[in-house]
Amino acid sequence: MGPIRNNKKRTMEKKADDNPLVSGSSSEDFTEWWGILSKTVAGDPSCSRPLENFKNTFRMSKKCFHYICSLVKDHMMAKTHFAFSNGKLMSLYDQVALALTRLASGNSLISIGDLFGAHHSTVSQITWRFVEGIEEKGLHHLQWPSSEQEMTKIKQKFEKIRGLPNCCGAIDTTHITMLLTSSDQESETWLDQKQNHSMILQAIVGPDMRFLSVVTGWPGKMSDSSVLRTSNIFKLCENGRKLDGPKIRIFNETELGEYIIGDSGFPLLPWLLTPYQGKELPENEAEFNNRLLATHSVSQKALVRLKDVWRMIHGEMWRPDKHKLPRFILVCCILHNIVIEMDGLDELLLSAQQQHDPGYRQQVCESVDEAGLVVRDKLCMYFSG
Q1: 323-to-43, 228, 240, 253, 319 alpha-carbon distances in Å
Q2: What is the pLDDT of residues 301-345, one digit of tens each?
Q3: Dist. CA 356–CA 376, nearest whole Å
Q4: Chain center to CA of 60
Q5: Distance between alpha carbon 22 and the CA centroid of its chain, in Å?
């Protein structure tokens, strides 16, 4: 499958804080806990156990969990009926909980199987069935705004951050790292500048940290600029079919079209504004950079949260199927959006100070479009008064 546009031990366990799925709870304790909790989730009147640990465990509310179940129900229950190791058939809630645990903990198939009392092959099949179901029914949660009214709300929220008018998104990239063996014939293809095997995720993010567009599947050694230029969003913007909404008048007769913002790793274009480069910048250019980077931080926070919640894509995955991995990444991005839409942003702000790509140096793209220079200078003059 092509890229999606919108010597260590095999079982690598992630360290975790207060999440019982990844904190070292015994499989017996968890199985008993989930057996009781699943009845509560299903609305069994015989079980009134409170859901105090539900959000800590699944990183979402019970309401959100039920909604996700409704999305994948038809796909997950229409074919094979899965069972625990003891022969008991799994309910829809059991299967969704297992798949979410796999994606959220990043633990191995064997570990998740031991936790739920299921064979590791069952964990693999259920997780993939879940991924297919979210792709089929949940993709509308990750899409470019389809109406001028939606885009207007996004632009208004961006302007409230640090005053950038007519801004439609913030673009950034992160690396999804993998562990590949030397026997993998494609291992050199995926080796990036940090000598990690990785896959790129590029995302355009809205002011509420929801993903508006994603591109993934390309090797991590590709530059931000190169990944951008392969994307449909680039082609559409270059052809005037995206970011083609109403222009606004910012001063005198000067008009400003729609645009997104990026860091110095991206080219300066009429529809993609990046910071001024260099040391000892004039005061007005330094002020512009401060405004742009403060606004751009929403994309960094979104990627931090994505990897913090969906830990399957946070650490080094052992020999992943590189044809399926882009679809796992996409589904994690969709789930990220659903949780924000259903549960809000309060909890998400807790991890805002972390880094989503530690150890990777800031890229610098020298590509500058003359029309982009004009647009950036106009906006800089606007802030200068």
Answers
A1: 39, 20, 32, 51, 12
A2: 999 999 999 999 987 777 788 889 999 999 999 999 999 999 998
A3: 27
A4: 15
A5: 20
Strands (E) across the chain are located at 167-179, 197-205, 211-219, 248-251, 254-256, 259-261, 272-273, 317-318
Contact 75, 137 (CB under 8 A): yes
Instruction: Name the token pair of 302.
Output: 């979104």
Query: Which one-letter DSSP state was computed for residue 361?
Result: P
Q: What CA–CA distance (Å, rounded) separates 4 from 294?
A: 29
What's this model's pTM, rounded to 2 decimal places?
0.89
* Contacts (Cβ under 8 Å, ≥6 apart) of 35: none
CA distance 95 to 168: 38
pLDDT tens per residue across span 19-62: 544 444 455 555 665 666 666 565 555 555 555 567 777 888 88
Pairing of strands 197-205, 167-179: antiparallel
| Phi, psi dihedral angles at 87 (to 5 degrees) | 95, -10
CB 130 within 8 A of CB 95: yes
Distances, alpha carbon 372 to alpha carbons 166, 253, 259, 282, 378, in Å: 15, 18, 10, 19, 10
Q: Three-state SS across 195-260?
A: CCEEEEEEEEECCCCCEEEEEEEEECCCCHHHHHHHCHHHHHHHCCCCCCCCCEEEECCEEECCEE
The amino acid at residue 314 is: H
- Amino acid in position 5: R
Chain centroid, CA 385 distance in Å: 37
- C-beta separation of 326 from 217 below 8 A: yes
